[in-house]
Structure formats: structure tokens, C-alpha cells
């Protein structure tokens, strides 16, 4: 008698807590880390250590790391939202698991819940070409320079899977050469200018205006971005914070004169305050004297003195 194959479904919690509660009832495994934010590493052991230390505001699961390290399932089923977090997970899983992988692309729907009440059926399997794209994407996302990511984006037939459109937004996580701000830093700073002073309203406006984007930070990450621009974090602050910096609702923000100059392109945040951030495997470290910056669609390494 032939043994029945086992099938694992991974549903991601990148749609917020509401989606997480829904997924809990229909998934074997849930991945609740935001890989679009912070540092990534190609080595699974180092990746787990990095993410576990970086995400200190909520516990992340070891399930996906253990799955990639080895599984006895014959088939894997992944239900994914069209977000960068989900796409990076697909790339990681496809790079480490040599088993058939079926992919179901889910609709974000309204609010934090998918636009269906019952679990979807099994989606199509990754083709050999799609799997290879996943492997090269994971290599590019964890590489110490952005060159491989740019090459991945310009490769032919890169859009075979709809969720891969999210990778284009990855380049916007690199700082603009003129202002020294990445796209989301610029958006939060401009929101402070327009919607000051309550942080809760500032963040709510950003989320409302950019809901559904494929690379969109949550409220906690947006708040962290604001705090990283204030007088506690920067010698030349772009915003002035007051109140309890530990809570969104009890913190207020005002844009500074220097922040207005940065928005206008008359000053550079990196030159004034430096940068020590990660975009996947790329370390943006102005202390080295050089930093990767975005100029239109190009990402180049330049001396801080040239900014």
C-alpha cells in the first residue's frame, strides 16, 4: 500500500493581528516576522539569531527556520499575501527545501483579514524557472551589496509570479542621495509637517494613505522611524518629540527647522546625523566613510563627504 503524502500549509501573519488570528485556525505553521525590515542573512542559524535579537517587541516563531533546516513533508503549500515580507519568505523556503511547493496568492481584502472565509484550495506549483528565481532572489536579498538585487530586477521574465512586483519597492529602502532619507523616512517626516503634533494621527494618516502597498511598514515600525529622527536619537534632530517615547498615543512630534531643510533638499540627514541601518544583507554604515544611496533607479556606493 502506498503511503499518503503529507502536506504542510504555511500562512503568513503579515496582514496584522487580525490575519494572525484567522491564520491560526487554518495553518500548520505561521511565520510572524517582518523580513522587509532590518537585517537578513543567508545562513539560517545566523538569521534566527539576528531576527530574534532585533524583534524585541513581540516573539517570533522558530517554525520556518526549523522547517527550512529539514522537513519530512512531501509537499509544501504556501498561502501568501502580495507583500515583500511574504515574497522574501517564499524565496527563503524555495532556496532551502528541495520539495514541490504549491503557492496560493491571497487577496488582502479589507482591514486586516483576507477576502475569503474558508481556506483557499491548493495553488499552482512553482516551476523550475520560478524556483530558480526564488533562489537568486534570496541570494540577492541577503547579499552584502545591492548589485545582485538590481540585477535580479532587470533580469528577463522576472515577473512570472505576481508577488514578485514587491521587490521593486525594495530599492526605496535605500536613502535618497540628496536628502539622506529613504522613502518611508521621508513620508513620516512630511506627515509630521502636515499632521503635527499627535503621533497617533501622524501614523494613522500614513497607513491610511498608503494602505495596500507591497512594502508598507506597520504602525510600530513607523513610530520607530519617527523616534530615530528626534532629539534623543540625532545630534541634529529632524523632529522634536515630547511625552512618553515608549507609546504612540502619548507622544507628540513637531518638525524642526532642520527637518524642513532636509525635506526641501537643502540639507542631508546622513551628513548631519550619520546612518547605521540594514537593508537585508546590506549594512548602511556612514562610520565607514561610505554609504549606499539611491539616485532614481540606481543604487551606488558613495563617500559620505560627497553627499
Task: Please describe what this structure looks like.
The chain is α/β, with parallel strands linked by helices and 307 residues long. It has 2 domains: 164 residues, no CATH class; 124 residues, Arc Repressor Mutant, subunit A. Helix content is 35%, strand content 16%. The protein contains 11 helices and 10 strands. Helix 4 packs across helix 5, helix 5 packs antiparallel against helix 6 and helix 7 crosses helix 8. About 5% of the residues have low confidence.
Helix percent band: 25-40%
Largest sheet: number of strands, sense, barrel closure = 4 strands, parallel
Give the radius of gyration.
20 Å
Mean pLDDT: 82
Q: Per the principal axes of the C-alpha atoms, what is the gross shape? A: globular
Spatial order of strands in the largest sheet? 2-1-3-4
Number of helices: 11
The count of β-strands is 10
Beta-strand residue percentage = 15-25%
Structural class of the helix and strand makeup?
alpha/beta
For the termini, the CA-CA separation is 69 Å
**Could you name the ranges where pLDDT drops below 50 across 5 or more consecutive residues?**
12-18, 110-118
Number of domain modules: 2
H/E order of the elements?
Answer: EHEHHEHEHHHHHEEHHEEEE
Short description:
Helices cover 35% and strands 16% of the residues. The protein has 11 helices and 10 strands.
